[in-house]
């Protein structure tokens, strides 16, 4: 009997994002812009408030895995936040936020809002206060380029069972807010493997909206990648 031992990972993030016009994706990074283009004048106060927000986020990134920042008076107020993956070290978090914020001021210079997902962090800014809100768009699903031979067939029930187990734990976990990681050895008739899973919400969500957001993300994951 051949036993195949391998790893299968699920990563479920809830970042309550906004409608977007363009998304670019690569192995390391996904990014996009707010839906409404707005050619703001790069010498305007919006631009300088944006620079204040991004540099505040960079400063905060060596102190914790989440921060928000707001700068400027209406109508040029800029709102921003970052969130690092709960299993990321302070140093990696900070490095990720530095690289994301430095790249993003150029990504969408004809839009007032931008977000970037890297593997270890996400950063977002916009001209409206998006904190605490659940939004169901945009959403990303990514799967590893597993070849069909050599990897076990992971059943839908195994994945949905695992996610249903972790969602309530994420909204009540405390050591790292809203972060749960899990690894379980799954034994099937023809193979066995380690199933790793990560579930995380941004800490500005209340527990109820964390659960709502994770359920939306899980449904998307079943639809995109089952
Ligand atoms: C940008 O703002 C400056 C200063 O307010 C102004 O002189 C310039 O004409 C503006 N440029 C555009 C393209 O609006
Ligand atoms: C944000 O910017 C867009 C594009 O200019 C504008 O339509 C929208 O009203 C702005 N929102 C706020 C809250 O200022
Ligand atoms: C939860 O999200 C909804 C939808 O974005 C928002 O209207 C509501 O205010 C949020 N609830 C709290 C308690 O922040
Ligand atoms: C997998 O299970 C989930 C959750 O029960 C369900 O929503 C989804 O439709 C299923 N997908 C397939 C391909 O059976
Ligand atoms: C923004 O960050 C401050 C701490 O810097 C925190 O007290 C506050 O709750 C945060 N707001 C939201 C909406 O997450």
UniProtKB/TrEMBL annotation:
<protein>
    <recommendedName>
        <fullName>Gnk2-homologous domain-containing protein</fullName>
    </recommendedName>
</protein>
<dbReference type="Pfam" id="PF01657">
    <property type="entry name" value="Stress-antifung"/>
</dbReference>
<feature type="domain" description="Gnk2-homologous">
    <location>
        <begin position="136"/>
        <end position="226"/>
    </location>
</feature>
<keyword id="KW-0677">Repeat</keyword>
<keyword id="KW-0732">Signal</keyword>
<dbReference type="InterPro" id="IPR002902">
    <property type="entry name" value="GNK2"/>
</dbReference>
<feature type="domain" description="Gnk2-homologous">
    <location>
        <begin position="28"/>
        <end position="130"/>
    </location>
</feature>
<feature type="signal peptide">
    <location>
        <begin position="1"/>
        <end position="24"/>
    </location>
</feature>
<dbReference type="InterPro" id="IPR038408">
    <property type="entry name" value="GNK2_sf"/>
</dbReference>
């Amino acid at each position: 009997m051949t036993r195949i031992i391998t790893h299968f990972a699920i990563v479920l993030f809830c970042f309550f994002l906004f409608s977007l016009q363009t998304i670019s994706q690569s192995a390391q990074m996904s990014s996009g812009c707010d839906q409404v283009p707005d050619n703001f004048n790069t010498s305007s106060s919006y631009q300088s408030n944006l620079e204040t927000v991004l540099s505040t986020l960079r400063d905060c990134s060596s102190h914790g895995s989440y921060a928000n920042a707001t700068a400027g008076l209406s109508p040029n107020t800029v709102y921003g936040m970052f969130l690092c993956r709960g299993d990321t070290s302070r140093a990696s978090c900070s490095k990720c936020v530095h690289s994301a914020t430095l790249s993003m001021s150029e990504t969408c210079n004809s839009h007032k809002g931008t977000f970037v997902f890297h593997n270890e962090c996400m950063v977002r800014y916009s001209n409206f206060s998006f904190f605490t809100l659940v939004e169901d768009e945009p959403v990303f699903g990514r799967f590893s380029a597993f070849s069909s031979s050599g990897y076990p067939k992971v059943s839908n029930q195994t994945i949905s069972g695992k996610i249903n187990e972790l969602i309530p734990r994420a909204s009540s976990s405390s050591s790292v807010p809203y972060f749960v990681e899990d690894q379980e050895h799954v034994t099937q008739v023809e193979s066995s493997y380690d199933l790793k899973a990560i579930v995380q919400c941004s800490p500005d969500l209340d527990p109820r909206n964390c659960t709502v957001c994770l359920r939306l993300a899980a449904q998307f994951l079943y639809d995109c990648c089952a």
